[in-house]
Amino acid sequence: MDTNIFRQFTDIKTKEMTPGYFSKIIHTDTNTINFIEVKAGAVSPIHQHPHHQCAFCIEGQFELTVDGVPQILDANTFAVIPSNVWHGGRAITDCKLVDIFNPIREDFR
Length: 109
Fold this sequence. Notes:
This protein is mainly beta. It contains no helices and ten strands.
């Protein structure tokens, strides 16, 4: 297997980024992709950053608040968050999320 192209999730160290949020992070030349397993009830405090973010809930339900507006994310609903917009959320159930950031999240390295 060409390890420059094909890689294994099991080789990525899991990091607890905030209580209840367990991430496997991939960095490309232009993006950071964060695969997150979140425990029900875990909260991501309201925050902002200069990165453009796409947020996907691929399993379970997650309440995401963007610019003061709450929305339930599930397997059919995703969010495109512009840079510097306040956002945060909480896991309604155990869930799996995928966040894609541009540019790279150097603070996640």
